[in-house]
Amino acid sequence: MERKIKIAVVGIGLMGSQHLIAIKNSKKADLHSVVDINERSRAHAKKFKVPFYKNSSALIKNNKPDAVIVATPNQFHEKHTISFLNAKIPVLLEKPISSNIQKAKKIIASSRKNKTHLLIGYHRRHNAISTKVKNKISKGKLGKIVSVNVMCWLYKNKEWFKEKWRVKKGGGPLGINLVHDIDLICYLLGPIKYVQASSSNRIRKYRVEDTAVVNFVFKSGALGTLSVSDTIVSPWSYELTAGENPAYSITNQSAYYIGGTKSSIQFPNYKEWYNKKERSWWKPILHKDESTRESRYTLTNQINHLCDVVNKKAKPKITGEDGLVSLKIFAAIIKSAKTGKKVKIK
Ligand SMILES: NC(=O)c1ccc[n+]([C@@H]2O[C@H](COP(=O)([O-])OP(=O)(O)OC[C@H]3O[C@@H](n4cnc5c(N)ncnc54)[C@H](O)[C@@H]3O)[C@@H](O)[C@H]2O)c1
After folding, report:
1. What was the pLDDT predicted at 165?
2. Domain 5-124+299-315, classified CATH 3.40.50.720, yes or no
């Protein structure tokens, strides 16, 4: 039996508290401690019977864990992550890697300099459904990928907007929701070459967008579209269809549609569509349903993967470089939405 990895969680807010549960559900990990500047998080330490620290230096100085999860607000990612990497403690850093590209590069450089692993928390890649779709595409089951359509339509209630940062730059659906989708489509379909985007604040009238559409050109030549909005009452978003987070009421819809020359796939409510013999719009379209609804385990899968990396049994599935790629695409989308022009990803 391999040794259990002791993990500290830094920042016990919306996401950090989910990680506490995921660690509890993992057979490979133990919770080491919790760190938060806010005294109210001491209650979590009490509940899980672990030490509480008010800052990361106190943790590093007094009681080094085997790994940490950094789930603090984006603007603190650089400071916290680099302090742990300098202490040679592997980090699972919440998405996005940072609030800007320069800081993201510093984080990656620190991981390299310290020869210490950095993993980015794009947890959807740890969902069995994503692995299944990835395998289908890699094995050529869909033929040549022609196009992908992604929907991220949801309705955020009044309470969500009480936090002032959520109505300012970076707090809209492009900054909050879209990055997960960018990471997932790059994982499934490969690198993106160009983006072109339009955004609007027509409905909510905040300074930040409530709705946006994005066109993608992939290096493979495939084309894609993504439509995101936080002011549409609808079931068509990954959150409401994957069932990863019990906070959302799950539906049996899908949000991703990937089309190839042999067949097409929709998921998270997985269906594969195809013609039996001759490929033709005049022939019946059949579908295989091989639903993989293990979504509730996604965050625990991510913890297990972190433990495997620390135990030298796996390499990081989502690296700092992957985090930088999605951040660059995000920045290009923001630029294109401002100028209306197509932007090349460098
Ligand atoms: N993977 C996902 O699906 C997902 C979902 C939500 C948020 N996130 C990411 O998780 C991170 C946190 O977001 P959130 O929504 O949980 O935020 P939050 O505001 O709910 O929680 C942040 C926590 O960090 C603590 N904190 C702030 N400054 C700190 C410091 N200097 N030292 C220690 N603790 C500090 C706060 O007290 C708070 O408890 C962000 O990077 C966000 O993008 C990821």
Report:
1. 80
2. yes
